[in-house]
From TrEMBL:
NCBIfam families registered for this protein in UniProt: galE
Biological processes per GO annotation: galactose catabolic process via UDP-galactose, Leloir pathway
One Pfam short name: Epimerase
Protein's recorded name: UDP-glucose 4-epimerase
Assembly: Homodimer.
Catalysed reactions listed for this entry: UDP-alpha-D-glucose = UDP-alpha-D-galactose
Upper lineage: Bacteria, Pseudomonadati, Pseudomonadota, Alphaproteobacteria, Rhodospirillales
Length: 331
């Protein structure tokens, strides 16, 4: 274990950020949540202080750095819906691009040199060769993906011009929940396929809408690489240690290397819950691609990371348990 660090976690009251805060605390660190609670939950802030603030507000950021004195930053604060980004691109360029630049500027002003950034597989777009590795050409198909690629490019340029050291972690579909049931997935609105399907199966939400069953995939439904949120949390702690030990700035894929279709998800929920998932099929969403799944060979080599909790059964089981025990409607 590395020596205790104070980690400013932007977006730490959200789904992935809160699981990372729990992992940081378990590894002896102090997570300081920086969040405006626009989509996060104060009840998810359990392992360190909450500093209220907006990522796009320089005064809020400078106040947090001046009062909290973090040793490094983990950056999750962002808008993250592909369909919404197509309809409202300005929101994504302001929150994701401008917000990240203001965070990086505050880091420079306060002498903080290490950052681990939440990126996304959406930077790749519609890939012709699978699995996707980090050398795959970047061709994002949505403003969301383009905003995240911009942040990666900014990190690279700033790192070349200064002593900033960074890791960008390109997630392939976070899923599942804390097995201890302290935190879980709770978005408003919910757009992720697994919680929507579970809620439909348990009678907690309307029938699931499947956006397209005519993709060029074996069963016609979209294929994605689902990674348990606890495995993602471990990767962030490992990335922090990697930077502390002098690792070079880089981007890493976080995925299982296995593609799972929407039909696979519905079948697994039925088997584990005992309930069918009522659903209907509508047109594909703008910007959606048929299949995305990762090679995480570099994360294994450099970050000593292997997903151990990301079987589809475990993802569905932990998510089911979260909804059965904690979800009673709006957050």
């Amino acid at each position: 274990m590395s020596t205790q660090k104070k980690v400013l976690v932007t977006g730490g009251a959200g789904y992935i950020g809160s699981h990372v805060c729990k992992a940081l605390h378990a590894n002896g660190h102090i997570p300081i949540v920086f969040d405006n609670l626009s989509t996060g939950h104060e009840r998810f802030v359990k392992w360190g202080p909450l500093h209220l603030g907006d990522i796009t507000n320089p005064d809020d950021l400078n106040d947090a750095f001046a009062k909290r004195h973090p040793d490094l930053v983990m950056h999750f604060a962002a808008s993250a819906y592909v369909r919404e980004s197509v309809a409202d691109p300005m929101k994504y360029y302001v929150n994701n691009c401008l917000g990240s630049l203001r965070l990086l500027d505050a880091m420079q002003c306060h002498g903080v040199k290490h950052i681990v950034v939440s990126s996304t597989c959406a930077v790749y777009g519609d890939c012709k060769s699978l699995p996707i590795d980090e050398s795959t050409p970047k061709d994002p198909q949505s403003p969301y993906g383009r905003s995240k690629l911009f942040v990666e490019q900014a990190l690279r340029d700033l790192g070349n011009a200064s002593d900033l050291k960074w890791v960008a972690l390109r997630y392939f579909n976070a899923a599942g929940s804390d097995p201890d049931l302290e935190i879980g997935e709770d978005h408003t609105p919910e757009t992720h396929i697994i919680p929507l399907a579970i809620q439909a199966a348990l009678g907690m939400a309307p029938a699931l809408q499947i956006f397209g069953d005519d993709f060029d995939t074996p069963d016609g439904t979209a294929i994605r690489d689902y990674v348990h949120v606890n495995d993602l949390a471990t990767a962030h702690v490992n990335a922090m240690t990697y930077l502390e030990n002098g690792g070079a700035s880089s981007a890493f894929n976080l995925g299982t290397g296995t593609g799972t279709s929407i039909k696979d998800i519905l079948d697994t929920i039925k088997r584990l819950s005992g309930h069918d998932v009522p659903h209907s099929v509508t047109a594909r969403s703008p910007g959606d691609v048929p299949a995305l799944y990762a090679s995480a060979t570099r994360a294994n080599r450099y970050l000593d990371w292997t997903p151990t909790q990301s079987s589809l059964d475990n993802i569905i089981k932990t998510a089911l348990n979260w909804y059965r025990h904690h979800r009673t409607g709006k957050g």
